[in-house]
């Protein structure tokens, strides 16, 4: 593990939360619709106060308490799928945290960030599902998330607190600097393991990686 920690800080542009509701005509509810919140929001072990996840079998829980998606990617999506109305505001991808300047190639599994008065730790990247395509009226968002390695990432909450737009996120620990979210997503989701088995094996040393992605790694090692 590395002892030095880069001096990284980024302003929080917006904090979003949402309620479970019927999803675009589907019988299955979803809370992917997230909307900006004014003021501070309580950050607890399972996420933001007032935020919901409809299907707890695949969403939410301690390792997926908070979803962070870079606002930097919105221009990419406008070029890729067009000026969809959802891209006019924060929260288009169901994210809780929006920042500019911080992307998957700069964030590592196990990073600990001060978020307002809370302390959070990067647990895994986001694995896209059909709801993104459906939310964007059938545009090929899922495939392009994988192809472009732009998934966003999840945090677990190490210390509860409060956070809001205007706060500054600061990196306080980086134990696995070689394991960026982009690299791990490439290995486990985007097929890079086919040409980098050594990397897939080495990923086992990253103790902060969320259990579902550890299980996925084991499956890819022994298909």
Automatic annotation (TrEMBL):
- The superkingdom listed in its UniProt entry is Bacteria
Q: Which GO terms describe its molecular function?
A: catalytic activity; molybdenum ion binding; pyridoxal phosphate binding
InterPro entries linked to this entry:
Benzoxazolinone_Detox_Enz, MoCF_Sase_C, Pyrv_Knase-like_insert_dom_sf
Q: Which residues form a coiled coil?
A: none
Where do the MOSC domain residues begin and end? Answer: 35-172
Offer one Pfam family short name for this entry.
Answer: MOSC
> Per its UniProt record, what Gene3D superfamilies does this chain match?
PK beta-barrel domain-like
The record, for PANTHER family, names: PROTEIN YIIM
**Descriptive protein name:** Molybdenum cofactor sulfurase
**Origin species:** Novosphingobium endophyticum
